[in-house]
Specification:
The protein is α/β, with parallel strands linked by helices. The protein has helices spanning about 20, 30-45, 55-65, 65-90, 90-110, 125-135, 145-155, 220-230, 235-240, 270-285, 310-330, and strands at about 115-120, 160-170, 170-180, 185-190, 190-195, 200-205, 215, 240-250, 250-255, 260-265, 290-295, 305. The chain is about 45% helix and about 20% strand.
């Protein structure tokens, strides 16, 4: 001790103890326990969490995890990382196509390559178009070919009303198509399209071969065309003079004839109105007269409107007749 009563040296030092310096025998186990206690105390001060009881419990639980689980977790993490990268990089479609090609190559290698394709019932759609629409390529395998998806893709074409796709193992594919037929021309908003009898728009009207089809005009006319055209076909005299059938407010029809005459049909029972029109034409040549409008909407009467020239001629004829009568009376 120094003169002030303090210890001249600390009780414990990192160097050799007094017993070691004097050469006296020292218990090595006790010395090791002391050093371990010092290290544990230092770790507790530096890493208090890892020295806690909770950390030791978690370490014990981790030690009981099966060894293979870590490998599986690594694979799962790698897969998730690749998937995330594909999504973020917008490569999902490319990855899916690569996987599809890989499985098709494997199936083709063992004898499931598509070597023969038969296409029946196609006329408006060519064989090559049908195969392409169905999604068949030179790499497609019959084993993994989705026949239902191919049928759905074929039905998306407006010309195709129905389709059947059959897989005939090991290497043949059969495609049977039922096509729609061009039925009429439909005009709306200045555009003319070729339509089927169910109202499906098949294509824009550009080819001269469709020029002879009946023309229907107006909103909703494509859906009602089948019934009305079927009705008009019963009257050859009207069909030969008909230029277009115009649907008014989606409720009733007007007939526009080639001479410019408009025939207004009623909303209900247009057949009776057409019967009257044909009868008048046979008796009085109504459809060939200088008339602009024939109104058949009322069942008990027919209203006609003369053209301007016909009206003027009629007025002049009436005046002339009036003068003759006056002259005769005198």
């Amino acid at each position: 001790m120094d003169g002030g009563g303090r210890l001249d040296q600390p009780l414990m030092r990192s160097g050799q103890s007094a017993a070691e310096r004097s050469g006296a025998p020292v218990d090595r186990a006790d010395s090791a326990r002391v050093e371990a206690a010092e290290q544990d105390h230092s770790a507790r001060r530096i890493f208090p969490f890892f020295a806690s009881r909770g950390a030791r419990r978690w370490a014990a639980r981790l030690a009981r995890i099966p060894a293979g689980l870590g490998v599986g977790g690594s694979v799962l993490l790698l897969t998730a990382t690749l998937g995330y990268g594909a999504i973020v990089g917008d490569h999902v479609a490319a990855v899916a196509d690569w996987l599809k090609d890989a499985r098709d190559r494997a199936a083709n290698a063992v004898g499931f390559a598509i070597t023969a394709i038969s296409v029946s019932g196609a006329s408006q759609v060519s064989r090559e178009q049908a195969i392409a629409i169905a999604g068949v390529t030179g790499r497609s395998s019959l084993l993994f070919f989705d026949a239902e998806a191919a049928r759905t893709q074929l039905l998306a074409n407006p010309w195709i009303a129905d389709a059947a796709v059959l897989k005939l193992y090991p290497d043949r594919l059969q495609i049977a198509i039922t096509e729609r037929r061009a039925f009429a021309l439909w005009q709306r908003n200045g555009r003319v399209n070729v339509i089927a009898d169910d109202g499906t728009v098949l294509q824009p009207f550009m080819e001269p071969r469709y020029r002879g089809l009946p023309l229907v005009v107006g909103r909703g006319a494509e859906r009602q065309a089948k019934d009305f055209v079927g009705l008009i076909d019963r009257y050859p005299e009207i069909c030969s003079a008909l230029r277009a059938s115009v649907l008014v407010a989606e409720r009733r029809w007007n007939l526009r004839l080639t001479n410019g005459m408009d025939v207004r049909l009623p909303e209900t029972d247009p057949q009776s109105a057409l019967d009257r029109l044909v009868a008048l034409d046979r008796e009085k040549k109504l459809l060939s007269r200088d008339i602009t409008t024939v109104d058949l909407r009322l069942p008990d009467r027919i209203t006609v409107r003369l053209s301007d020239a016909a009206a003027q001629a009629r007025d002049e004829a009436l005046k002339a007749n009036t003068k003759k009568k006056k002259g005769g009376d005198a």
